[in-house]
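Team,

Forwarding the record for the chain on the shared tracking sheet. I've put the sequence and predicted structure together so nobody has to dig through attachments.
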Amino acid sequence: MESIFIAVTAVTAIVLAAALWWFIGRRSVERIHTEAQTRADEIARDAEKQAANRLREAEVAAKEKLLQARSEFEKVSRKRRAELETLERRLNQKEDLLAKRLDEVTGREKELSSQERAATSLERSLEKQQKELDLLLGEERVKLEQVAGMTAQQAKEQLIHLLEGEARIDAAHLAKRIEDEARENAQREAQRIISMAVQRAASDYVAETTVSVVMLPNDEMKGRIIGREGRNIRALEMVTGVDLIVDDTPEAVIVSNFDPLRREIARVSLDRLITDGRIHPARIEEVVEKVKAEFDDSIRQEGEAACLELNLSGVHPELIKLLGRLRYRTSYGQNVLKHSSEVAFLAGIMASELKVDVHVARRAGLLHDIGKAVDREMEGSHLELGIDLLRKFGETEQVVHAMACHHGDYDPETVEAVLVTAADALSAARPGARREILETYVKRLEKLEEIASNFRGVQKTFAIQAGREVRIIVDSERLSDEQALWLSKDIAKKIESELTYPGQIKVTVIRETRSIEYAR
């Protein structure tokens, strides 16, 4: 009985313990579930806050980008509007100009209509008078034919033939006599005038040789360059000796001057002033003086480099400086310093082949155009100025004589003088040396020969001296001496009217009579 009681008690205790354990476990699970639910709610709230923050940040970034894009768009729009306003102003100016020209054309049309009516009336009157005159001439012609025994046409042809032959012969003799007299009296003066004109005469505004363009960061810089009441531009023109052209060209100023050295000094100075930003008369003078000093050093270095390249020593420092100035001088588009170096090189090669003085040939070739460095500042041709400079700075008479003969003004007495003349012609006449590409050069020579070949009596034509002379061989049986003279004039006139060329072209007509017999 006692064991049963114990068993029942044990079972009851186990059941109570199990119930207690189940109750405690359920409370723990509920508590854990509640904590998990609370943690989940906190995580959800944090996620919502972070999402809201990121959304706000994205909205702020989007607004900033929108504002930036709008600012750039407004900037571009302002620039485009300014460009359109400038174009509109130009179009308005052109429209006004066209309107003025239209008014002028209308006035001229009215004037021409009035003149045309007057001319028509006069023509009718002349036709009436012509008919009356023809009637009278017909009557007189009939009477003359009856007296002379030949028709009017036959008499006219015979008279014209006789008069034409006599007139052409007399005119040819007269023209030849006038040309001989003019050549004898004016040759020396013509050579002086032509040489000075070719060296110095040129328009002050020739594209590609007398102007330089300075680009500006914006059009507002033009006002700063001009300055208050134009004081800055006047100061720059005064210290550099150039002309500054400030026109409607956007973001550009044109520097114009015939002297390339002064033009380059002005261009570099203006570039530096624009970069520096301080533009006033005192600063302009300071910058120009610095640039001039730098150019003096650069010019001396250019002259020294030319002498070193040709292995020439003992050249006077002043001559070296003048050689460097030739770096900024051109002749028909050919750089004079490069041309002088090329002449010296060619003369030296030929002198070496002929076993004559290479040093004299090279020295005279390099210095043959030294007068061009000062011919715009001193009176006289570049040849005379060069002779004086070489003698002044201690060059030998051999070098002076070889240099003086390169244009044919003096008769060469040494082989070196002949070589310098030949080298000068080679350097100047080779295709491409003086702004003339090979294709244009060949076409010009072919056109020159074609023009001469189309004339009656011409057998052969030869374009020589790089197109500066054309020689024509004519048939002596078809043309007389007088007709050969007229042929040269006719060919020269046709060349002038149909070809464009630098300098002048010499037309030489050759007529020779050959008597051939065979001894058998």
